[in-house]
């Protein structure tokens, strides 16, 4: 396995994430009780990511920077609901870090994930823990730690998925609304569907 992500691999990762999210829309909608129980988190995240997938399918890219920029722009234009906006910010920060790069190795990609989290936190007035923000932050921190310790790309993303899954399970304890309903955060669950699919694609 190549230990870097090029434009074609990144494109495939996002298309794979889009398909996985699409398959989980109803499950995510059923989890959606916070901040309001309107049952549309899966739908919103699905429509948002679908926008990026549609743009990606139109062309091939020379560099990971160009592919990531295309995804970030499409997500921003097509963002629906809170979860869609946060998703677009996570990819916006990612694309900023990858600017000018042809490919991304473990350290670069983990750093880009962390930049995405920073962008999302900065944009939310009062970040609530036990949400997609928490889950993405814990996942990115695990990726950075693994890559800095010399892990390859697959192991780096695997660490991110494992840590993110644990963080997601814990969201039920961090948020009283989720605790009362006995469910994990829908946005966080959607993010983990995306991350796991990206790893599977890789």
Order of helices and strands: HHHHHHHHHH
Task: Output mean pLDDT.
Answer: 96
Mind telling me the C-alpha Rg?
Answer: 15 Å
Class from secondary-structure proportions = mainly alpha
Unreliable runs, pLDDT <50, ≥5 residues? none
Number of helices: 10
Distance between the termini: 9 Å
Shape: globular
Main β sheet profile: none
Residue share in helices?
over 70%
Fraction of residues in β-strands: under 5%
Count of DSSP strands: 0
Short recap of the structure:
75% of the residues lie in helices and 0% in strands. It has 202 residues and is mainly alpha-helical.
Task: Please give a structural write-up.
By secondary structure, this protein is an all-alpha fold. The chain is built from ten helices and no strands. The chain has helices spanning 7-23, 25-31, 41-57, 64-78, 81-97, 106-123, 132-148, 153-174, 176-181, 186-201. The protein starts with 6 loop residues before the first helix and ends with a helix. It is 75% helix and 0% strand.
């Amino acid at each position: 396995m190549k230990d870097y992500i090029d434009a074609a691999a990144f494109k495939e990762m996002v298309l794979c994430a889009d398909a996985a999210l699409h398959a989980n829309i109803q499950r995510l909608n059923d989890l959606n009780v916070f901040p309001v129980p309107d049952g549309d988190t899966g739908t919103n995240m699905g429509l948002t990511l679908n926008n990026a997938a549609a743009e990606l399918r139109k062309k091939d890219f020379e560099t990971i920077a160009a592919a990531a920029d295309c995804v970030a722009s499409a997500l921003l234009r097509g963002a629906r609901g809170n979860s869609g906006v946060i998703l677009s910010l996570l990819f916006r920060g990612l694309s900023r870090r990858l600017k000018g790069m042809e490919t991304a190795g473990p350290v670069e990609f983990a750093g880009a994930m962390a930049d995405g989290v920073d962008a999302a936190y900065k944009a939310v007035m009062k970040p609530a823990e036990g949400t997609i923000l928490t889950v993405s932050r814990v996942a990115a921190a695990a990726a950075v730690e693994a890559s800095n310790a010399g892990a390859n790309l697959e192991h780096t993303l695997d660490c991110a998925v494992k840590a993110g899954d644990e963080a997601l399970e814990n969201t039920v304890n961090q948020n009283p609304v989720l605790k009362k309903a006995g469910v994990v955060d829908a946005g966080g669950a959607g993010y983990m569907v995306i991350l796991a699919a990206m790893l599977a694609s890789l």
